[in-house]
């Protein structure tokens, strides 16, 4: 419209004269119109260029998108091929894995199984794949514990391991299985699969049960063995001890288990020889036997022990020390007693030989002189005959003692009880010993009451008792000494005492005085002779009558021998006994 208007104005200007002022204004308007048109053209061109740029960028974007789409399509196809290969690989692994393995879908139907599963449970793929697990092999797998795992436990957890299940399968028998189950998620919008791994632990469980039974059997043996046994760890701490150890050493399991061996019983076991064994000797050897240790335990006294120790390794390679402690205290005492018996036997043989030889030599010597008529006069011959008679009695006494001991040990010692007056018996013994009493000028004090009750006893054996005790009192008394014989009755027995003022007995000898073959060491006692059997036989006789005998003595102050005899035989006891 503006252009047309300008043309119209130009056409009319040829016909109409226009003033210059108006022309100037017209030129200004035309210029303004031209400038506005140019600006509009410039803006349009700018917009076209921008649009072209946008189109170009869009085209480029489209080209890029087309390339990406093509790439993604290729990647997708390659990814699908990789997935298929991975699935094939996984299936091969599942098939060849040496454990029984099942893959179940959300309905608990079998989608895959390993070759080991088929072989272990004697089933085919045709009867397995697609089947509900509980219906496998004629519902052999409808197992309550399996249902518990799959329907209750696994849904609450992602993974379950070591779930033990024992079941009897008709086709393969009893099986112990360890089940491991895991939920496997493929994507967020798909239900998970269940990976179920079954380890047949039947043999392992049987072996474990056998091992456990063997260990329990071994523990029972260890507990029952009559010697003490300790098991120590590598740090020498007690991990096990048997009943004998607790009983022998008077300790409790609470005080023992877990303790360092040297700290047991308030460090009673901190023994240098034991340290030497465990810390120096045993580390250089696998086993040590016959290692002797003697120690004073405050709680149980002195003990002699034989230690046998052995280093061993348990299944988990922990170093253990097995130590057997044989308490040989009583055995050593027995050996010492045997040695003492041997010593006494040797002494006895020597003493018997001497004691028998002496009277025999006297008898043989004086008899030979008489037979050869070498006696100078009748008085000398009478003295020789008295010596022969005395030595014959002594010899007969020695032989009698030996025979009595033999009868005692053979169980042939017979008592013939009868009613007798103990007062008369004692006085007859004193009368028999009158010659030696008179020879040493011994004063005998008779304190035996006239009204002393009668007793039931073997008269000859009671005489033997009194002869032994009174003759010993005379033997160990000085010339001119005094011996007192007391007797008194109680309500059921008679107490007899022989009291001398002789040399007395050492305190250390008193406990052994009535033992067989015992003789007090010392020249003063040895020179008086004897076999050491008299007091032993005396004690046996008194005790066979139901009485008791004891001695009280102080060195150089004399001795008092006392014994009791019951007044009557106990009801039901025979008068003649062995």
Provide structural commentary.
The protein is of the alpha+beta class. Helix content is 49%, strand content 22%. The chain has helices at 2-13, 20-96, 115-120, 136-139, 144-153, 202-224, 243-249, 253-256, 264-267, 272-281, 329-371, 378-410, 422-432, 434-439, 459-475, 523-526, 534-544; strands at residues 100-104, 110-113, 159-169, 173-184, 193-200, 228-232, 238-241, 287-297, 301-313, 319-327, 415-416, 418-420, 443-447, 455-457, 482-489, 493-500, 549-553, 559-566, 576-577. The strands form five sheets. The chain has a five-stranded antiparallel β-sheet, with helices on both faces. Strands 7-6-10-9-8 form a five-stranded antiparallel β-sheet, sandwiched between helices. Helix 11 packs antiparallel against helix 12, helix 13 crosses helix 15 and helix 15 runs antiparallel to helix 17 (534-544). It starts with a helix and ends with a strand. Mean pLDDT is 80; it is low at 1-23.
Produce the secondary structure layout:
Blueprint: H1 2-13, H2 20-96, E1 100-104, E2 110-113, H3 115-120, H4 136-139, H5 144-153, E3 159-169, E4 173-184, E5 193-200, H6 202-224, E6 228-232, E7 238-241, H7 243-249, H8 253-256, H9 264-267, H10 272-281, E8 287-297, E9 301-313, E10 319-327, H11 329-371, H12 378-410, E11 415-416, E12 418-420, H13 422-432, H14 434-439, E13 443-447, E14 455-457, H15 459-475, E15 482-489, E16 493-500, H16 523-526, H17 534-544, E17 549-553, E18 559-566, E19 576-577
Parallel strand pairs: 13-15
Antiparallel strand pairs: 1-2, 1-5, 3-4, 4-5, 6-7, 6-10, 8-9, 9-10, 11-19, 12-14, 15-16, 16-18, 17-18
């Amino acid at each position: 419209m503006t252009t047309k208007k300008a043309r119209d104005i130009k056409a009319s200007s040829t016909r109409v004269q226009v003033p210059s002022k108006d022309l100037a204004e017209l030129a200004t308007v035309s210029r303004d119109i031209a400038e506005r048109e140019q600006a509009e053209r410039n803006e349009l061109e700018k917009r076209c260029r921008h649009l072209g740029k946008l189109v170009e960028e869009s085209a480029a974007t489209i080209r890029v998108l087309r390339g990406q789409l093509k790439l993604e399509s290729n990647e997708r196809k390659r990814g699908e091929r990789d997935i298929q290969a991975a699935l094939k690989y996984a299936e091969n692994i599942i098939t060849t894995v040496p454990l029984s393995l099942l893959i179940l879908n959300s309905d608990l139907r079998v989608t895959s199984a390993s070759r080991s599963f088929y072989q272990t449970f004697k089933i085919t793929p045709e009867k397995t794949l697609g089947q509900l697990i509980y219906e496998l092999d004629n519902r052999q797998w409808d197992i309550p514990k399996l249902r518990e795992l799959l329907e209750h436990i696994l849904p609450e957890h992602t993974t379950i391991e070591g779930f033990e299940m024992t079941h009897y399968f008709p086709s393969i028998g009893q099986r112990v299985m360890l089940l491991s189950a895991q939920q496997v998620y493929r994507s967020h919008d798909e239900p998970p699969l269940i990976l179920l791994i079954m380890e047949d632990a039947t043999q392992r469980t049987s072996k474990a049960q056998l091992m456990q039974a063997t260990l329990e059997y071994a523990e029972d043996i260890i507990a029952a063995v009559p010697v003490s046994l300790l098991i120590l760890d590598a740090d020498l701490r007690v991990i096990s001890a048997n009943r004998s150890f607790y009983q022998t050493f008077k300790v409790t399991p609470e005080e023992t288990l877990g303790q360092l061996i040297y700290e047991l019983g308030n460090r009673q076991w901190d023994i240098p020889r034991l340290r030497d064994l465990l810390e120096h000797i045993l580390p250089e050897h696998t086993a040590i036997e016959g290692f002797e240790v003697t120690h004073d335990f405050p709680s149980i006294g002195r003990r002699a022990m034989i230690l046998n120790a052995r280093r061993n390794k348990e299944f988990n390679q922990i170093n253990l020390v097995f130590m057997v402690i044989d308490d040989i205290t009583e055995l050593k005492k027995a050996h010492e007693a045997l040695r003492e018996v041997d010593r006494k036997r040797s002494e006895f043989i020597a003493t018997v030989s001497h004691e028998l030889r002496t009277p025999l030599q006297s008898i043989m010597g004086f008899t030979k002189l008489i037979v050869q008529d070498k006696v100078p006069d009748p008085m000398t011959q009478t003295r020789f005959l008295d010596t022969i008679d005395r030595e014959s009695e002594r010899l007969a006494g020695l032989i009698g003692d030996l025979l009595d001991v033999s009868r005692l040990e053979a169980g042939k010692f017979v008592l013939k009880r009868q009613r007798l007056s103990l007062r008369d018996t004692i006085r007859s013994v004193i009368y028999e010993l009158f010659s030696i009493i008179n020879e040493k000028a011994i004063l005998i004090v008779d304190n035996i009451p006239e009204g002393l009750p009668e007793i039931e006893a073997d008269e000859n054996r009671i005489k033997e008792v009194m002869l032994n005790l009174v003759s010993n009192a005379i033997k160990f008394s000085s010339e001119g000494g005094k011996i007192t014989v007391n007797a008194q009755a109680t309500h059921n027995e008679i107490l007899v005492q022989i009291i001398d003022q002789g040399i007395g007995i050492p305190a250390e000898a008193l406990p052994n005085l009535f033992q067989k073959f015992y003789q007090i060491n010392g020249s003063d006692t040895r020179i008086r002779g004897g076999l050491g059997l008299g007091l032993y036989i005396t004690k046996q006789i008194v005790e066979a009558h139901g009485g008791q005998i004891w001695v009280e003595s102080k060195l150089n102050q004399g001795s008092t021998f006392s014994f009791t005899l019951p007044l009557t035989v106990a009801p039901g006891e025979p008068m003649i006994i062995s």
